[in-house]
Structures are given as C-alpha cells and as structure tokens.
Amino acid sequence: MDYELRTIPGCPNRGPALELFRQALAAEGKGAGRVTVREVTSEDEAEALSFHGSPSFIANGRDLFPADSAPALSCRVYRLEDRMAGLPSAELLRTAVRGVSSDA
C-alpha cells in the first residue's frame, strides 16, 4: 500500500503530521518508513488531486478523511471530541488506517 502526506508550502503541521502518520502506521503494523511527502503548490494541482487542505493523509490515492468541501490550497482542520485541530488524534488516524487496510 502507498502512503502519502500532502501538504502546502509552509504548513506548520507538516512535521508533526508526518511523525503522527508514521506512528499510526507503525502501530498498525504497516511500516512507518513508507510515507511519501507531496507538497501541493497550485489550485489546479489541488483540484486534480481532490486535495482538501494541509495536511492530508492518503492511502493508495484515497484521502483517509473524506471531505465534502471543494478542493483548495488551504489549511485543514480535523474534528476532535471537544474541538477542531490542525491534526487528527492518533486514535482517529489509526482507525482510518485500519479502515482503508480492511477495504484493500
């Protein structure tokens, strides 16, 4: 399975998101070193990739957190139990990784 972290230039969550993704993959036995980082730099590219903000967690080309919003070159927020945040919780990401693995 291919894993990709998509970000925009200057995203303050890039480093923490990459570490979180690697930890979630390792915890789920998916190989933490297999994450490619892709920087999305234009609205056209965001549209072509169905990119819904930075950071986005991708498995085999599929966004682990599908969004209804229009693709955009922007920051992304994730809904946690009590607030919105720039990253999903470790448990939400692990659940998403498990879900895509069971669909494969």
Fill in the keyword field for this structure:
104 residues, alpha+beta, four-stranded mixed beta sheet
What is Rg?
Answer: 13 Å
Kindly report the spatial arrangement of strands forming the biggest sheet: 2-1-3-4
Ends apart, CA distance between termini: 9 Å
Major sheet:
4 strands, mixed
Query: Which percent bin holds the helix content?
Result: 25-40%
The structural class is alpha+beta
Supply the number of helical segments.
Answer: 3
Shape: globular
**Low-pLDDT segments:** none
Describe, in short, the structure shown.
By secondary structure, this protein is an alpha+beta fold. It has helices at 14-27, 43-49, 90-103; strands spanning 3-7, 35-39, 56-59, 62-63, 78-79, 84-85.
Question: Can you characterise this structure?
Answer:
It is built from three helices and six strands. It has 104 residues and is an alpha+beta fold. Strand 1 (3-7), helix 1 (14-27) and strand 2 form a beta-alpha-beta unit. The strands form two sheets. A four-stranded mixed β-sheet has the order 2-1-3-4, with helices on one face. Helices cover 34% and strands 19% of the residues.
Helix-strand blueprint:
Layout (H helix, E strand, L loop, with lengths): L2 E5 L6 H14 L7 E5 L3 H7 L6 E4 L2 E2 L14 E2 L4 E2 L4 H14 L1
Parallel strand pairs: 1-2
Antiparallel strand pairs: 1-3, 3-4, 5-6
